[in-house]
Amino acid sequence: MDENLEAKICDFGLSKFGARNQEDTQIHTRVAGTRSNMDSVYNERSRLTKESDVYSFGVVMFEMSSGTLVYREKCFGDDAKPQYLIDVGRSVYDDYKKAVGPHKLIDPYIKDHADMNSFHTFNKIAHKCVNLKLEQRPTMERVIRMIEQALTIQLTKLHMGPSVRNHDESPTIRSLDNFYNSTGGNKLGNPKLQSRNIYWRL
Question: What pTM did the predictor assign?
């Protein structure tokens, strides 16, 4: 937490002791972390950028929509061979004519509740985030706006009306609560789905 009580992401495995009056440090080490979640550019150059965070966020988005861990191989399709999620996600949204269709990526636990247009919009955002070219990745501000568009599509299907941004409240929190209640809350059949709904709050 900083002086404004805002949370900061930190990897305690990489933390170092330092002098209290030393504000900045610069230590070069080998790349550390879960490689399947990390930007390939970071793996090559050992240099973090804002775009690296965007990439990792895209990976998490694909995991949330598919219910699949990125570092485990899985068969996406009836006759498909085991593949990694990011490879499939890239190929599907690079070329819709691939053998594995976009609908094969959806988590079966949310299939009955998700609007497919909203699902594809969400995954297209993830696809943009994991672009291998840094300059073609969206900013996080742009990502948030696109996620709100995906949510609006979902809520429109459920006749809740589009969410509207204001300066005092996240545009999605109230709508998410309505969506969650309408689908039965804890009665959805899969407790994991409850945590997956959190992404709509971004």
Answer: 0.62
CATH code, domain with 101: 1.10.510.10
The pLDDT profile of the chain, 202 residues, written as one tens digit per residue, is 677 877 766 555 556 666 777 766 665 556 565 666 777 777 777 777 889 889 989 999 998 888 888 877 777 766 567 777 888 788 777 765 454 566 778 888 888 888 888 888 898 999 999 998 889 999 999 999 999 999 888 888 776 544 444 434 444 444 445 544 554 444 333 444 344 443 433 3
For 190, the domain range is: 35-201
Q: How far apart are CA 144 and CA 141, in angstroms?
A: 5
Does 19 map to a domain?
no
Domains held by the chain: number: 1
Closest C-alpha to 145, from 168, 127, 167, 171: 171
| 160 assigned to some structural domain | yes
Q: Residue 178 corresponds to which amino acid?
A: N
